[in-house]
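EI: anyone free to look at a 1536-residue chain?
SC: sure, send it
EI:
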Amino acid sequence: MRSRLPPIALVALALAAAAAAGSSSVDYLTYRGSNDRAGYLPNANLDPAIVGTTAFGLLQSVSLPPVNSFNPERIFATPLVYTYPDYPHQIVFVATETNNIYAVDGVNGTVIASRNVDVPFNRKNDIPACGDIDGTWVGITGTPVIDPATSTAYFYSKTYSTPTAGGVSSGRYRFHAVDVMTLQEKPNYPLEIDGLPSGIDPTLVFEGGKHLQRPGLALVGNIVYGAFGGHCDFFNYTGWVIGVDISSSAVTSVYSTSSFLTTDKGGAGIWMSGAGPAVDRNGKLFVVTGNGNESPLVSPTPGSSGSRLLGIKLSVADFFTPFNYVALNGADRDFGAGGITLLPDYFGTTSVPHVAAAGGKAGQMYFLNADSLGGFDMGPSSGDKILGSVTPGSPIYSQAAAYPGEGGFVYVQPIAQPLLVFGYTVSDNIPTFTQIAQTTDILPFGAASPMISSLNGAAGSALVWTYTGEVAAYSAVPVRGSLTKIFSYQVTGTGPHSKFAGLGFGNGTVYAPTSDGRLIIIGSPTFSPVTATAADYGSVFIGNTSTLTVIFTAQLPVLVKSFTFSNGNFTIVTKPTLPTTLSTEGTLSFTVKFTPTGTYTATGTLDLATNYTTNPTKGTATVLTFAALRGSGIVNGPNLALSPTNLNFEGVVTGSGPFRKTLIVGNNGAKPLTFTSVGLPSGGFTVVDAPAVGTVLPSGGSVTVSVLFDPKTDGKYSSTFAVGSNGGSLDVLLTGSSAGPPVLQILTQNPDGTFGSNLNMTFSPLTSWQSQSRIVILKNIGATVLTITKSKLPLSGNITAPETAVYEGQQIPAGGNITFSVTFANGLIPIATPNTTSTGEYVLNTDDATSGLQILNFEGVTYPPHQINHNIFSNVSTGWAYMNCFYDSNPRTLPTGVTGSASPYMTVEICLSLCEAAGLQWCGLEYKGECYGGSSVAASTIDTCYKNSTRTPCNGDATENCGGPNALDVFYNYAYTGSPTPTPPPAGGGGGGGGGSGTPLITPNITGYSYVGCLVDNFNGRLFAGGYQNSSTSANMTLPLCAQICSEKLGVAPDLLAGGKWYGSELFFGVEYAQECYCSGTSSFNNTLSTACTLACNGDATTACGGPNALTVYKRDGSSSLPTSTSTTTATPSAVPTPIGVANVSDWTFVDCLGDNINGTHTLPGGFQNDTTYPVMTIPLCATICLEARKTDSRLSPTGSLFLGVEYSQECYCSSSSTFTRSPSTACTMACRGDALTVCGGPSALSVYQYTPSAPTPTSAPTSSSSSAVASPTPSGIASVADWSHLECYADNVNGQRTLQGGFQNDTTSPVMTIPLCAAICLEARQTDARLSPVGPLFLGVEYSQECFCSSTSNFTRSVSTACTMTCKGDSTTICGGPNALSVYQYNAPSSSSSSSSSTSQSATPSSSEAPSQTAASTAKYTSIGCLTDNINSSRLLAGSVQNSTEFSSMSVALCYQICQRNMNVDSRLAPGGAWYGNGTLAFFGIEYGGECYCSGTNSFQRVASTNCNMACNGDSTAICGGGNALSVYQVVSSL
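SC: here you go
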């Protein structure tokens, strides 16, 4: 018979060669360090006494240099670590998904060598619907293996048959053998792995394109075994095991887990979340399969049934299939989701010498006899023949880890749960595993399998390591039901962690791979001139003392400077005199004693600081050497222990029990313990195997007790299990809740926005660059938690969903939901192509037993873009087509401003003609009259048209659309050739075309001037660049009038001053758009003729005054007389209107509204440019920014000219140059974000001001109605700012929350930040930002030298920090916070006589006409702390206090004080010895509503200032006694 595998199974394959012995060095040569995959590293030299100190942390963050163009880089394989012969440091071997390999120095992070071995497989192109390996590329996924005998690394790479090939059928796997140091291929490699026939059915062949090599490799003797599964459930996802004999460089065994050839059969893939096959000492190889389609085997198949292939055979030697495999398979509960662990022999018994552990998506971890796995239906009542199982509940995508010491522990990581700890005991000679502890952290989906390290098995030295993007270490031995975290490092960056990617381990070092191509090296300094002995005190009776000597030995001549000491459980008895010098082999001795005070394990360090010289030219360096101290306390008698201290069965399904959890009852004392009483629980809970009264436990002994919860009705339950003994009495709290099962409901959005249950979603037809999104909602309408067991989203093509929208193992609480969008989007679609249909699907499964597998189908139709009507647009080429309405932003969607400013005559035809003339393939119209172009569209704005924009008609043709606010109507030229096609000159030379009436327009003779011609304007910039530009609308413009305007500007316009080019020969003027007059003193402009001068002058209907982007141009002949004309009379130019909304800022003068982004360049070039969107921007604030910036920013001169400009209501720019393009604009129409009465520029238009100080050098920021004057900071690093006082340096992000929370937060990185600038920002913000109160308290804080925060609440966490060590970006003499530390200042509002802002603020205290003023009620016994808000979130401010409303009518401040004093001997909360006795700082009272008195002995209440304390005391009309939901609060100074 054929040796096939069951559909989902744990399988042991018989091998021809025995397993190789594991390495005993500190190298890490294979997945999880050894072939048993137990994850236990006894020799990694990771001492918890070092790991738990600041000496252990980040050493290097190595960005792996790209060696090909296949980006981004991602790492799924675990880094391996190897000591290469004759190399001084360990080498880290790293392999990536782009088929790059790296040899990295394990100490200093130097990349010794790098190489690309193959073109990676393009998963997004060829298998787009499967995102199991997220990202574009699939390359080296399975963890390699290193053979130390030959210094060779072996691995599989996924690639194509040729470097230029593509598609699944061209996919190949190659088996490589490379030198670990040089990365060069060994002879006879690589081997191509494709087309190999299966050993159980030669008609089934291995196809590399369809399979994924996810599991780590296993080296067994001379054979390297690799296991394969599928890409999701596509194709024939049969599992494969392929062996390569490295001694002969040949494939020797090919084993498939199925013999079915069709795409709807087969299965039983091997992926195991990246785990490597386990190998026992007898040569059996263990793998776990999932999602098979064959019937299960009836009994284990002997090895003789295997097929022979190339002299080596693989055959099924043993297997285990869960009895409920049909249900598991149907619900997609892959047994193969987790790998298998062969536990160390420590966990065996004489009956069961070897134990295996394996779990999967069903959330159940099985403990099996590794020598007889259990087959199928071979247990009692046709159930599972297993040692036992535990059911954490959520899926398990990892391998168990085992610590064979201190009693024995197994660690299991279910997703979205804590790391669980199971204690090892023996019952009837059978190994038993009971949950006894867990971490307080929740580890997410994708977490790596946990790892264990110890110092050669020494008690108290074991650590559990986890990696989720955070590298964390916990003490491996639980304490009171939990694991203690001693180390944490959060990896930052765009990709902190690829799912299931594991940690690598070296000599005292940990290596973390990232999903953005980095290797994080964590450890302690690797060289010390002094070595130290450790002091391990073992177990010491509580209260007793043990003394040991710590010896430091010099490795070379060294100066010993000092020492430090940690942990109060240890005490130094004798110590040497320091400083001192040691010669080589010289020693120093410290005598240290350990006196435990409880049953715990204590660790500490004795740290010696030394100076040594490594290189005479580099001086000396200081190095710390750490001596580890360890000891445990033990009771000198019996000591009862229960773990955990509570069991919670929350959220189980009623009637589906019983649910089992276990606890350990143990004796942690030194003498035997006798049980004297046992209290059993009730109310749905029962206990199995409770110890009988009189039972004796020896020292260190324990018994396992099972607690069963079997609710029959919905509800909440609680009870206790109590144990008494001669070593103490303890109880365990038992809680639980039950309800109905989870129920999945799928809702999809209909085209009209409503939702229904249709699983077939059809999008509206779309064309180029268009997109449409619809919402999908997954709801849990059941009563208990719903778990996602399968989630395969559409990830590529035209129909996609976010890659992380729904993940396997994600849980939805009862009544909760997951909401995400599915998007149908197109790129560029050719003209005149047929309609095409795009499809996608979402495959979903959950633990809702009634829903089964769900498939959502999506469909969308793409049609070609609309080509414009060339019968209408006859002057543009035939290739233009309308694309879409695009959102415009900064930077511009189309970067080139073709017209410079808005045109009152703009049409689609004019804009397309201008783009064509400029050689631009993309063209767009915005704001009725703005035309933009470019060679491409900014990627971030594709298909994101501003939803709130209103399409506007073109200024020149109301029947056409010309975009809208921040919205571009975009066209694309399919006929683009790559070169400009400017409009040809007219056949008869210069002159204009016809006027609107059909009568030809003339170009009159003007005395002293000669007609030049009709010239193109805005051809890559203004024609008269650098000259005076008057864009004012003149209703009576004529050509002589423009000549007169230019002549009159001789002594006014900067470029036309006396001595300039207007005193000479080359003098020009031009008129455009019938009314705009421009002047220039240079002939260096683009002399391109145009035919667009077709508009009559506003003041002379017979004369041509230019046209759209066309100037009627004249040159002065040299005569200085005023021009005259026979065709028009000279008119006086209209006066320039006074600008409205101009800010009055001291020392600053308004210049003009000037066009910005001319030719894609900022008008204020070369200077400081702050593009930050400031929601509080005003002209004074921009002035402050510029004055601060000039002090430190190299782009600004500290003296001389200074200009500011504000654009788009909020963008602030600064420049020291006065030679910028001054193109007046009419587009400054937007009010400042922080001042609705002042104009702050507009679209591509700047409100420009010039700094004109009365004094030569500014010493303070500008003042305005909303900003305070500032002064220079004091040398101490604290700024002196008028009306502000420095409080303290406070910690930020305490418990993940901002210290100044709830208020305006400006996290912008400002390169000119100072305390005065932040003060100005906050004062401006409080006038408009809803999160800040316009009156009352105001606080500012600056962090990280540049981040400014504001808040109106005084009730923030005031945790003093010493981390304010960073100087302000804009002032090196002042401190601006530090990492997670704020320099905090408080605003002291000035009186009305000194602050203009106070006149507009409401008084916090009511005036005498509104309510009585609060007189000086404070006395020597109490003092007022203000008016505070009560009943926040429906809770009393002085919560938990005496609340007395009985003496309401006669209430006064003094009476309330007496009431609280009377109650201190009556109310238990204010009893003698309480806060009212001796500690006056914790005694408070408050009055509300004129007569309600409250008392409190704690200061832990929320202090939110209120302005509602406006009610006189009922018994004292001269004093205030609070108000509505407002307390007048006092603090007691002394009691009566």
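EI: The chain has a mean pLDDT of 78.
SC: 👍
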